[in-house]
Amino acid sequence: MANSWNEIWNLRTSLYGFLANSLLEPIQGEHAVAFSEGFWKDFPLEAANRQMKAGLEQLIKCSSYLEGLSNEAAVENVMVEYTSLFIGPGVPKAPPCESLYRTQERIFFGSTSFEMKAALYVHGLESRRKYEQPEDHIGLELMFLSILSNKLPGIEISQQISTIKEQAAFIDHHLLSWIPELCQDAKLNGSVGFYGGFIELIWGILLWDRELIEEFVANNEQEAAVQIVE
C-alpha cells in the first residue's frame, strides 16, 4: 500500500506543478498542447466532483474551438484572456492573489501574502519573484503544494501523516477559502473561457485532494494504533 500512496504523492507533485506553472505565466510554446481537445480528454484524473466535471467539460469545449484556429491565433486568444483576467490594465478582472479576496484591505501584497512568505520560510523556501509577485499568488500556493508533496515519498509514515495534515490545513485556509470567488470572476469575465474552466478544474482537484488526504490519514492512523496495541 505504501507504494500505491507514493505513486499518488508523485501524481500530486506533477499535477500541482503543472497547474502552478500554467497560472504563473501565460501558456505558450510547447505547453500550448493544453489547447488541444485530446489533452483534456486524456486528463489523468476522472471527474470526482461537479467542479472537476464542469471544468473539464469547459476546457474540452474551449480547446475544440482553439483547435480550429492557427497555433498563433490560439495562443494569442488565450494570452489576451490571461492578461485581462490576471494582470490588467488597471485592476485585474480575476485577480489571482488571495489578499484581493480575503483581506479587508483588498490590495496586492496584503496580510495573506506575508502569511505565505512565512510558510515558505519555515520550509526553507523563497519566491524568486518576491519583488514582482505577491507570495499569495494562486500559482505560488499551488507550487508550494507541489514541493511539499514531492517530499512525502522519502519520509516515514508517521511523518507523512503529520505533513499531509499540514497540507490539508493549508488547502483549507489558503486556497479553498477564496477559489470559488476567483472561479466566478474568471468565468464571468473571460473572453474565450479557457481560464474559467481551468480555475474550476483546480477547485475540483483541491476538493478531491482533501478527500484523498482524509482517506490516507484515517487508514494510516488506524493502522498505527493497531501496531501500538500489538
Describe this structure in words.
This protein is mainly alpha-helical and 230 residues long. The chain has a single domain (2-89, 98-229), classed as TorD-like (Orthogonal Bundle). It is built from 10 helices and no strands. The longest helix is centred in the last third of the chain and has 36 residues, at 194-229. The mean pLDDT is 91.
Secondary structure elements and pairings:
Layout lengths: L1 H23 L12 H5 L8 H17 L4 H16 L12 H4 L8 H12 L15 H13 L6 H18 L4 H11 L4 H36 L1
How much is the average pLDDT? 91
Please tally the β strands and state the result. 0
CATH superfamily: TorD-like
Low-confidence stretches: none
Helix-strand pattern: HHHHHHHHHH
Count of alpha/pi helices: 10
Shape descriptor = globular
Provide the CATH topology.
TorD-like
State Rg: 18 Å
CATH architecture: Orthogonal Bundle
In terms of DSSP E residues, the strand content is under 5%
The share of residues in helices is 55-70%
Structural class: mainly alpha
Distance between the termini: 20 Å
How many individual domains?
1
Main pleated sheet: none
CATH class: Mainly Alpha
Structure keywords:
single chain, 230 residues, mainly alpha, TorD-like, 10 helices
